[in-house]
Design goal:
There is one protein chain. With 481 residues, the protein is α+β, with helices and mostly antiparallel strands. The protein has 2 domains: 110 residues, Roll (Ubiquitin-like (UB roll)); 334 residues, Glutamine synthetase/guanido kinase, catalytic domain (Creatine Kinase, Chain A, domain 2). Helices cover 35% and strands 19% of the residues. Strands 6, 7, 8, 9, 10, 11, 12, 13 and 14 form a 9-stranded mixed beta sheet that branches. The chain has a 5-stranded mixed beta sheet with strand order 2-1-5-4-3, sandwiched between helices. The longest helix has 21 residues. One of its GO terms (biological process) is biogenic amine metabolic process.
Length: 481
Amino acid sequence: MATQSAPTNLAELTTLLEDATKVKVAGLDVDGVFRGKYMSKDKFLSAVKGGGFGFCSVIFGWDIHDTVYPKELLISNRGNGYRDLLAMIDLSTYRRIPWEKDVPFFLVTFLDPDTKEPICVCPRGTLKKTVSKLAERGWDAMAGVEYEYFQFKENAHSVAEKKFTGLDALTPGMHGYSLLRTTLNKDYFNDLFDECLKFGVQIESHHTETGPGVFETALAYTSALRIADNASLFKLAAKSIGMLYGIIPSFMAKPYANLPGTSGHIHVSLRTKEGKNVFGLSDAEVEAGGRKDAQYDETKFISQEAEWFLAGLLDGLPDVVPTLVPTINGYKRLVGGESFWAPNAVTYGYDSRAASIRIISPPSVPPSATRFEVRVPGADVQPHLALSSIFLLGLRGIEKKLTLPLRPISQITTPEEKKTVKKLATSLEGATLQMMREGSIAREVLGDDFVDHYGGTRQHEVDLWNAAVTNWEVERYLELI
């Protein structure tokens, strides 16, 4: 994971930290914001020996701008005085931060201090529990994440002074896969790649995407917890390295009304302990033309388990949308639907970027690379929670041996057929109500405690939006109404 091997015991840890005077630690809140601190080396080693350290639970009781939720939620509330959670240090996440004088860095998972179990809305804890359920069946959850993101020649002070309007894009125009546009900012462009590698975040590809100042970065396919950590750490790295160049990378899903939004596509598969792709067929099966019992021609090159997984994902997708699209702004990206390659319906198809779930299988890739691409999330996605939802829905499909609820998108052609396709929620408010309703599939797979707490945080976001007066309203109504 890092440029040096992670320690497996206290002796190895002490040796790794010989040159350090301090250590940086951080965990994630429900919005995917890292909350952390510096610790002296002695304090850190003491916390490792003692099984963790106290961390104020208010990080799960306030929003992205540190406004305390008015509604009493399950984890952090006035009733318990915002007591400490137990922050458990994960030694396997060891790395050095190259742009901060190589300070040692570790991730933590937040536990209930009484039960020592992950709290219900800790992103890392939620995904760890999900991965454990799959491991019980002998499977490893595997995943990859791709981010698109706008970038601005601004800093924290300049965007505040401009009131977040009239910002200068890093480059002008629409230039996807451009070699010229990367030359304009070659030092920054290359540092993003190289510094992330030093930071233990492996990048698979890195290029310009269409849009003013837009980059796309695909992170290397790996285990689900590691890719979720890497995806979150990539955002931190991009923003930190950007600061050094006077650049703000934005993972907001749709900063411009008249341009496509930015995606956070997620690729998933299952692997046996022996390394076999559970979703893939054997070479012999592919050569023989695929599965004869596949529901549709477009699923004949994926395994029966993969077809059940896909059916489970489609069945529960409408109920977990807030974990895939967690912000008010994220739903603006989905308004364009297929026209902006941002699917907003319960659809799937072989190698189809118009579908919400893209099947990637032979003949376009070898059987070992068979996987699904979930194309609903934007760049604002919290990867741990999104992956938890995706894998839990897929596992439910396998356990119930669900059948695909509809035909592939390529076969849904007439206006009458298109009307039968289930649409996803078009707002955070609608998506949250769908998730929180009694008997939702989200409650079945994620649990009532998670849904009630996380749903409460999304309702707070909706309430703030409903109370806001926007520039659009002022421009539309001030003079003429």
